[in-house]
Amino acid sequence: MDDAASLPTAFRGAAASSSCRPSEFDPEPGFPEARRVIAAVTAALAEARPGKVVVLSTIGADAPHENLLTQRTLMAQSLEEIGLPVTFLRPGWFMENALWDVPSARDEDVLRSFPQPPDKLFPMVATQDVGRLAAALLREGWSGTRVVELEGPARISPNDLARAFATVLKHRVRVETVPRESWEQIFRSQGTRNPLPRIRMLDGFNEGWIEFSDYGRSAVKGPTTLDSVVAELVEMSRANTAA
After folding, report:
1. Which of 164, 153, 154 is closest to 223 using CA atoms?
2. What pTM does this model have?
């Protein structure tokens, strides 16, 4: 998406356009990878002038401290200047991130949680609800810039996630919080070169400075439940194991 020469062709003549910049989960300091893509996309949209644009952003795009989600902040700041009708869709934490927890919940009866404490409620949403709302927004008309926030039908704690796994797996699953002082070592052992943005993102959720503007009271509520997503993730894991 950093091909500034070709992107205008993709956008030109469109009544509506959706933009979803792939996230860089191990960015260099200063987010140079994101800045290159943002510059290319912004220039392409400014040249092609589609009728309207829906941008997949994120909760935390307006966070007061730099973190992994700052990449979306930079995108918003850039696209606000192009003079097109732009909607920034800001979903909460994806429920499908629980895919990484399936093996330990299934095989060790434990959910190792970076979001903490275990009873803290977090705004989460299913990705299928994000797709449905993005498609609906593309069909709407508006002027200027607007932000649409999206979360699921209820906020979810690590305890809730463990209970959902226990229901599907039919055995007890306990929550084990991962001490913050171990995060850097864990992430580096997984190959991360610059873990600070990810650590600060987790801090933002845990400390409450990554949050929707009015704690989600005005956010659109997607219908997909955590139980249904966890059931699909476990079934997917079983199918992959059988294959």
Report:
1. 153
2. 0.93
